[in-house]
Design the sequence.
C-alpha cells in the first residue's frame, strides 16, 4: 500500500523531473530568429511609409499561404484596418513564399517593395 | 528611465491598493511576499483602467494621472490607518520547520523555472503562438498607434482579432508604451514574466499564511514545475494574468474567512477579493464566467453562515461594491466600443448543438485526455499524483470544509461553464478544443493547487523527514 510520505516524495520527484526537462528544453538565444523576423514586421516597414495614416485597406495573398501571413500583415500595419478583401481602393499584396502568377485584372500594381510585398490599386472599388 | 519610473509608479499604485484592502494585517515575511505578489498585478490592472479611461476621454496626460492617483491613494491610506485600530489581529505566518530535502528540491525547481522563463522571453520577444500578435499586442498597437482613431482596432472587419475581448493586458501595455513614447517588445515580455512569477509568489505566501511552510513549498513547486505554465507565461497571452487574478480572488477570500475580527479591515479585504475577481473579468471573457461562479459560491457560503438579521447579499456587499465599477466598465466597453462577440450570435443553432449528445461525448473525452497532459509534465502527470494523495488522505481533510467546498464549487462551476461554451461553439468543436482547452485548464491550475492543499490541511505533512507520518485511512 502506497504511504502518504511515499506519495509526497513521488510528487516532489515528479516536479523535479518536469523542472529538469523544462531546463533542458529551454530555447537558446537566436533559436527563433526567423519567426522573430516575421513578427517584427520589417517586410512591411517601407510599405507603411507609403500608406495613409488611418483607414481601411484591402488585402490579397496567395490562397495556399497560411492565414497567419494576413494576421502578421495586420499586426505590422496597425492602426490601419486590413480587410481580407480586394474591394478597396488601396490593396496590399502579400506573397512571402512566391511571387504572384497573375493578379486579378482589376488590380493595378503601384509599387513593388520587394520580398513579396506589393502596393496595388483597385480602380473599380468605391 | 521612463519605463523604470512608470514601473515603480505602477507597483506603488498596486501596493497602495493592496495596503488599503489588507490594512495592518499580514506584516510577516510571507505577508510581505503576499503584498508584493499582489501589488504588481493590481498595479497593472489599475494602469490598464487609467489608460482606457484616458483614451476614451481624450485626456492622455498619463504621468499626471498616475502621480495624482498615487497621491490620492497615499492620503487615503494615511487617513484610513489613523482611524483603524492599530491592534488588528495578525494572521499567523507559519514558522514551522520544513524538510531540508523539500527546501533543496524547491531551491532547484524555482531557479530552473525562472531561468527557463527568462530564456524563453528573451528568445521570443514578440511572444509565441498566434494570439500574442493576432489579439493582445495587436489591440495594444491600435490603442497606442491609433491616436484619436483608437476605436478602429475594434472594427467588425477583423473579427478574428476578437475585438470584444477585454482590455486589461492591451491597455496596460499601451500605458507603458505611451509614457515611454515608443513601442518596445520588452513591455509585454516583462508583463508576462511579472504575472507568471507573481502567481508563484502568491500561491506560496497564501499557503504559507493559511496553512504551513511545507504546503507552501509543495504547492509552489507544483506550479513552477508545470512546464506549460512557465511557457505560456512568456507567450504574451492573457491566460496566465487571468490565472493570477483567479488565484488572488481565492487567496483573499480565504484570508478574509480566516480572520475572525469583524469591522472595517475584514470588509476591506473582502472588497479586495471582489476587485481581484473584477480584474479577472477585465482580463478575459472567461473571467466574467469566473466572477459569476465566485459570487454564487460566496453567496452560498454566506447563506450557510448567515448572521441573524443580515441577508447573504448584505454580507458580501463590500465584494459586490468593488466588482460593480469594473463590471460597469466592462459593460460600457462591450456595449459602446466592441462589436458583439460570435459565441451567442445564433441562438437557434446554439440550442440545436445543445441537443447533440455526440458533442457532450467529444468534450468529455477531451477533458479527460487534457487533464493528464495540459501541463506538459514529463513522465508523471502531477494531477494523478495529487489525486492519489487526496484519496490517501481524505480522512484527514481540513475541518473548514465549507470554505473549501465553496472554492472548489466556484472552480467546478467555471469548468462547467467552459464545457457549455465548447458545446455551443460556432467554430469546429475539435479545432476549438485542440487550440484552447489546455490553456483553459491552465487558467484554473494555480487556484486548483491552492484549494487542493487547503483541502489536505497541514496535518498530513511531516515537518521533517524523520517525523512520524499520519496513518492513511
Sequence:
Amino acid at each position: 500500500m502506497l504511504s502518504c510520505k511515499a506519495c509526497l516524495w513521488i510528487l516532489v520527484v515528479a516536479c523535479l523531473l518536469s523542472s529538469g526537462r523544462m531546463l533542458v528544453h529551454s530555447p537558446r538565444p537566436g533559436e527563433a530568429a526567423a519567426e522573430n523576423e516575421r513578427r517584427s514586421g520589417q517586410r512591411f516597414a517601407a510599405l507603411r511609409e507609403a500608406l495613409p495614416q488611418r483607414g481601411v485597406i484591402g488585402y490579397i495573398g496567395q490562397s495556399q499561404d497560411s492565414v497567419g501571413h494576413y494576421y502578421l500583415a495586420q499586426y505590422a500595419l496597425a492602426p490601419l484596418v486590413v480587410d481580407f478583401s480586394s474591394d478597396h481602393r488601396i490593396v496590399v499584396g502579400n506573397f512571402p513564399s512566391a511571387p504572384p502568377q497573375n493578379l486579378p485584372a482589376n488590380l493595378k500594381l503601384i509599387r513593388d517593395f520587394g520580398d513579396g510585398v506589393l502596393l496595388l490599386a483597385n480602380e473599380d472599388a468605391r | 528611465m521612463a519605463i523604470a519610473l512608470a514601473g515603480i509608479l505602477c507597483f506603488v499604485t498596486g501596493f497602495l491598493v493592496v495596503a488599503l484592502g489588507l490594512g495592518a494585517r499580514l506584516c510577516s515575511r510571507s505577508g510581505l511576499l503576499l503584498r508584493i505578489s499582489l501589488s504588481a498585478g493590481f498595479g497593472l490592472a489599475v494602469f490598464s483602467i487609467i489608460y482606457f479611461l484616458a483614451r476614451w476621454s481624450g485626456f492622455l496626460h498619463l504621468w499626471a494621472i498616475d502621480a495624482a492617483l498615487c497621491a490620492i491613494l497615499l492620503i487615503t491610506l494615511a487617513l484610513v490607518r489613523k482611524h483603524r485600530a492599530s491592534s488588528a489581529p495578525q494572521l499567523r505566518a507559519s514558522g514551522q520547520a520544513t524538510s531540508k530535502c523539500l527546501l533543496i528540491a524547491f531551491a532547484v525547481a524555482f531557479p530552473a523555472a525562472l531561468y527557463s522563463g527568462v530564456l524563453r522571453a528573451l528568445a521570443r520577444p514578440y511572444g509565441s503562438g498566434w494570439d500574442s500578435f493576432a489579439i493582445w499586442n495587436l489591440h495594444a498597437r491600435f490603442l497606442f498607434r491609433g491616436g484619436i482613431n483608437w476605436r478602429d482596432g475594434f472594427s467588425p472587419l477583423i473579427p478574428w482579432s476578437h475585438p470584444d475581448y477585454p482590455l486589461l493586458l492591451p491597455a496596460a501595455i499601451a500605458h507603458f508604451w505611451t509614457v515611454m513614447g515608443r513601442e518596445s517588445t520588452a513591455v509585454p515580455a516583462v508583463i508576462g514574466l511579472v504575472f507568471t512569477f507573481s502567481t508563484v509568489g502568491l500561491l506560496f505566501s497564501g499557503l504559507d499564511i493559511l496553512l504551513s511552510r511545507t504546503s507552501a513549498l509543495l504547492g509552489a513547486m507544483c506550479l513552477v514545475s508545470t512546464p506549460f505554465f512557465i511557457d505560456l507565461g512568456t507567450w504574451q497571452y492573457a491566460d496566465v494574468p487571468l490565472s493570477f487574478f483567479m488565484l488572488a480572488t481565492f487567496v483573499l477570500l480565504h484570508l478574509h474567512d480566516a480572520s475572525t475580527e469583524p469591522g472595517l479591515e475584514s470588509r476591506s479585504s473582502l472588497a479586495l477579493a471582489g476587485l481581484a475577481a473584477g480584474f479577472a473579468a477585465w482580463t478575459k471573457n472567461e473571467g466574467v464566467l469566473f466572477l459569476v461562479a465566485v459570487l454564487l459560491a460566496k453567496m452560498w457560503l454566506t447563506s450557510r453562515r448567515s448572521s441573524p438579521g443580515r441577508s447573504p447579499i448584505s454580507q458580501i456587499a463590500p465584494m459586490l461594491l468593488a466588482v460593480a465599477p469594473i463590471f460597469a466598465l466592462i459593460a460600457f466597453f462591450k456595449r459602446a466600443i466592441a462589436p458583439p462577440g460570435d459565441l451567442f450570435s445564433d441562438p437557434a443553432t446554439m440550442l440545436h448543438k445543445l441537443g447533440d449528445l455526440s458533442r457532450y461525448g467529444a468534450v468529455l473525452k477531451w477533458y479527460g485526455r487534457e487533464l493528464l497532459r495540459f501541463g506538459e509534465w514529463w513522465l508523471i502527470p502531477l494531477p494523478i499524483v495529487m489525486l492519489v494523495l487526496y484519496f490517501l488522505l481524505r480522512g484527514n481533510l481540513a475541518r473548514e470544509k465549507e470554505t473549501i467546498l465553496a472554492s472548489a464549487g466556484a472552480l467546478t462551476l467555471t469548468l462547467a461553464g467552459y464545457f457549455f461554451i465548447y458545446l455551443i461553439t460556432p467554430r469546429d468543436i475539435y479545432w476549438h478544443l485542440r487550440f484552447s482547452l489546455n490553456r483553459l485548464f491552465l487558467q484554473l491550475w494555480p487556484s486548483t493547487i491552492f484549494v487542493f492543499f487547503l483541502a489536505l490541511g497541514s496535518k498530513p505533512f511531516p515537518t521533517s523527514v524523520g517525523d512520524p507520518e499520519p496513518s492513511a485511512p
Notes: Chain A touches chain B through 47 residues (CB under 8 Å). The longest strand of chain A covers residues 107-114. Helices of chain A lie at 4-24, 33-40, 45-50, 67-77. Chain A is about 35% helix and 20% strand.
